[in-house]
Amino acid sequence: MRRITRNLANLYDFHLCKYDPATGQIEHFTKPQPEPESVVRLPYNNVVRYLRIRHGLKFIISKEDLSVFDVIDLMKSYMTLKDCDFSALEQIVNEDPTLISLIKRVADLALILSHSFPAIPFLRKNSNESVTLSQKQASIVLANAFFLTFEESRDKYGRSDCINMTRWFSSKTRNAKQKLLCIFAYFRYVTSHDLLGTVTILRQSLPSSLNFSLYDGPVCDIFVDSTTKIEEVKDADQAVFANARVGGGVMRSGCVQEEIRYLIAPEALISCMVCERMESNEAVVIIGPEDYSTYTGYGDSFKWLPLEKEEEMLRDQLGHSCTTLIVMDAVNYSNRDNQFEFRFLDRELRKAFIAFSIRVNDHIKVASGNWGCGAFNGNHQLKFIIQLIAASAAGRTLSYHTFGNERLAQEVQKFHSTLKQHQVTVDTLYEALISADPDIAKDPFEYLISKTCT
Asked: In which residues is substrate bound (predicted)?
C-alpha cells in the first residue's frame, strides 16, 4: 500500500495568498494561483443585488443607534429565502446588547469581500485539488455568510455555494442559540486580533479498487481512550465523521461530531462552500483551522463554552496551525446486517484508507473513533477493525476514542493485544474479515480472533 504526500505545490493546488515563514506576513493575491476552471459564486456576481448589500452594510456600520431589527430588516431586503424567522438572533442580542457593536465589526469585514476575492476555486469530485486562503480571507467569507449575502440556489454540480447562517437565526432550529454563541466567539476574536495564518481545503481520490491482501505487515500500534475527545489530541490528524456533502447539517439543525467540529473551528466551514459532494473513493482534508470555542454535550445537549486561546501559535512553512482535519463519510445502514457484505466492507475500507493515507505534515498518528456508529447504525467493533486495517496499510498509528464507552475501550484494547500477541498481519485479518460467514455479526472481535489466532 502507499501513503500520499501533498506539499500543496502541484498544478491544481490553488493559492489565494502566500505566507512568508521568515516574517510571518501574508500576501493576498489579486487572482487565484493558478486560475481555476470552476469557481464559487460570490455575492458580487449579481451586480444589482450586491449594490443593495453594500449600501445596507454601510448603513449598519454608520448607524449610531443600531438595533437588531435594523440588522434583520437589512437581511430581509436582499435575501433570496422568504418568511425566515430571526427570533434566535433577536433573543441573543437582547440578552447581550454588546453584540450590536460586534455585528458592526462583522459588517466591516463583510464589506471588503469584492476587494479580497476575484474568485474562489470550487473543488470538484475526483479532482485532487486544493485551495488555500488566509485566515483573514476566511473571516471575510464567514462575515458574508452571517449577513446572508450568498444566493441560495443550485447549479449543475448540485452545489449551492451557500453557507448562509439563515437557520441559525431561527428559534425553530435546534441548538440555534449555541451555534450563534460559537460564531460570535469566532467573530469577537477575528475582529480584535491580527490574523496571521492560512487554511487549506484539499480533496484527494484514489483508484476505486485497493487490494489489502497485498499488505503483509503487522497491525499498527494503537492508543485507546474513552474520555478524551478527538479534537484534544494535538499531535495527530483528527478524523471528522462526515456526511458525503461536506458539513452535513451544520448550517441547519445538525449538531453531532462533524457539525460540532466545524462550530468550534468555524474556518472549517469554508469546506462546505468549496467542495462538491464526496465520492466513495475520496476524502477531504482541512489544514490549519483553529479552535475558537469549546463545548460540552452532544446533539440536543450541546452547549457552547468559551475557550482561552493560545496567543502564540506554531505554524508550518505555509502558515497553517498544527490542526489537520480528515473528513471521511461513512455509509448509512438502514439494515444493520448489510455492513458485513463485501461491497460495504470494501467501500468503508477504501474510504478509511484514502483518508488515512493523505499526509500534509509530520503527524504519524491519526485520532479517530466510532465512525458512522450513531445515526448511521455502524457496528462499533466492525468500524474499529476497518480503521485498524486502513491505518496499518497507510503507515499510521491509531489513537482510538470511544466517547465515554469504557466497555468498548476495553474490548478494543483486548482485541488489539491478542492480534499483536499472535503476530497477526494485516492481510490475514483482512482475508478473515471479507470471507466471514454471518456469525461475525454477533461479535466481530471474538469471531476474527477465532479465525486468525488459533
From this structure: 243, 257, 298
* 370 is known to lie in a ligand binding site: no
- Rounded CA gap, 143 and 294, in Å? 21
The verdict on pTM exceeding 0.90 is yes
3-state secondary structure of 105: helix
At 48-71, the pLDDT tens digits run: 999 999 999 999 999 999 999 999
Contacts for 87 with CB less than 8 Å, ≥ 6 apart = 169, 170, 171, 172
Nearest CA among 376, 131, 47 for reference residue 241:
376
243 is in an annotated binding site: yes
377 is in an annotated binding site: no
Report which secondary-structure segment, H or E, holds 399.
strand 397-401
Domain count of the fold of the chain:
1
The three-class DSSP label of residue 207 is coil
- Domain of residue 9 covers 4-452
Report the CATH number that the domain containing residue 286 is assigned in CATH.
Answer: 3.40.220.10
CA 436/CA 338 separation, integer angstroms:
13
The C-alpha cell at 96 is 447581550
Rounded-to-integer distance, Cα 317 and Cα 22, Å:
9
